[in-house]
TrEMBL record:
SMART domains in the cross-refs: S_TKc
Organism: Cephus cinctus
Phylogenetic classification of the source organism: Eukaryota, Metazoa, Ecdysozoa, Arthropoda, Hexapoda
Catalytic activity, EC: 2.7.11.30
Entry GO MF terms: ATP binding; metal ion binding; transmembrane receptor protein serine/threonine kinase activity
N-terminal signal peptide: 1-27
Keywords on record: ATP-binding, Kinase, Magnesium, Membrane, Metal-binding, Nucleotide-binding, Receptor, Serine/threonine-protein kinase, Signal, Transferase, Transmembrane, Transmembrane helix
GO cellular component annotations of the record: plasma membrane; receptor complex
Protein name: receptor protein serine/threonine kinase
């Protein structure tokens, strides 16, 4: 990878020539802190700048140029603070590399985080609330300057949610996102309904009944996937702050489908049998987890129109978060 991953100083000078507004901390990218991981089409690495700021760099090859453009435009439109920089940089010979540079989150993905950590109520609600807030923001069209179209992610899963240093979530990987603008009334063309991660696909995606002319249909599919991620996080939360008894980490449907399930595997479980991941009985005796249980049930409902919107989930979790903080303070005062 060393010979092909560019001279970073030259790359930075090129970036500055076309993006003069790049933050000063990214002006001189000095070296790769770690070797880039590489698969068939893309890789990522951590880069340290002259200002001691770590960033994440996704390296996308020519065959995935469409995904690169989609991730860049979706990401930059999603937030004014996302810190998303991209450029086509000519390498050696005819080789062309596209870089997607974003904030680096050292805690990794929620998938990794949940396997290593036990959550208390505050940490759990911070994860759930920030995830719901992020998805609600994506789903919302913003008018004015700068505005943004509404976005549906289409691949919500714990591996595509990053954990920031403060414990909040950041939604990642917009390669499959679709955009909707009410001004033009158009949705990005969708060549295939069944894209994303099969384990997290909504029933209407698995049985291909999703209405591709309705942007709301794409949003409801995101909400179903979000419900599964909420379930993953809740399993790792204690029911009593005095103990550390939790459920082991599990992927959704881990007990009923193979590690790499086919479309037919998932369709049988989700659409035909209408199964959902089991809710631990211990949640029923806990106020926070029981409330989250009710929210999850409404997120992954079989009928898309019955599901909650991401905004409704955000508002519900916001109230739950505030109430939990107040109760935590009261409990500490009682102990003292």
């Amino acid at each position: 990878m060393t010979n092909t991953f560019l001279n970073y100083k030259a790359a930075t000078l090129f970036l500055l020539s076309i993006f003069p507004w790049i933050q000063k901390t990214l002006c001189i990218i000095c070296f790769c802190e770690k070797h880039c991981s590489e698969n068939q089409s893309s890789g990522s690495c951590e880069v340290k700048s002259g200002g001691h700021c770590f960033v994440a760099v996704k390296n996308i090859w020519e065959p995935e140029k469409g995904e690169y453009i989609q991730q860049w435009t979706s990401g930059c439109l999603s937030s004014k603070k996302i810190g998303c920089i991209a450029a086509d940089i000519q390498g050696t010979g005819t080789w062309t590399q596209m870089l997607l540079i974003t904030d680096y989150h050292e805690n990794g993905s929620l998938f990794e985080y949940l396997q290593a950590k036990i959550l208390d109520k505050t940490a759990l609600l911070k994860i759930c609330l920030s995830m719901a807030a992020g998805i609600a923001y994506l789903h919302t069209e913003i008018f004015g300057t700068p505005g943004k179209p509404a976005l549906a992610h289409r691949d919500i899963k714990s591996k595509n949610i990053l954990i920031k240093r403060n414990g909040e979530c950041a939604i990642a990987d917009f390669g499959l996102a679709v955009r909707f603008s009410s001004k033009s009334g158009t949705i990005d063309a969708v060549s295939d309904i069944r894209v994303g991660t099969r384990r997290y696909m909504a029933p209407e995606v698995l049985d291909q009944t999703l209405d591709v002319t309705s942007f709301n249909a794409f949003k409801m599919a995101d909400v179903y996937s979000m419900g599964l991620v909420l379930w993953e996080a809740c399993r790792r939360c204690t029911t009593d702050f005095r103990t550390s008894v939790v459920d082991f980490y599990s992927l959704p449907y881990q007990d009923v489908v193979p590690s790499n399930p086919s479309f037919e595997d998932m369709k049988l479980v989700v659409c035909v049998k209408r199964l959902r991941p089991p809710m631990p009985t211990r949640w029923e005796s806990d106020t926070v987890l029981y409330s989250l249980r009710q929210t999850i049930l409404e997120c992954w409902h079989q009928v898309p129109g019955v599901r909650l919107t991401a905004l409704r989930v955000k508002k519900t979790l916001s109230k739950l978060y505030i109430n939990n903080l107040n109760n935590t303070i009261d409990d500490k005062n009682i102990i003292v």
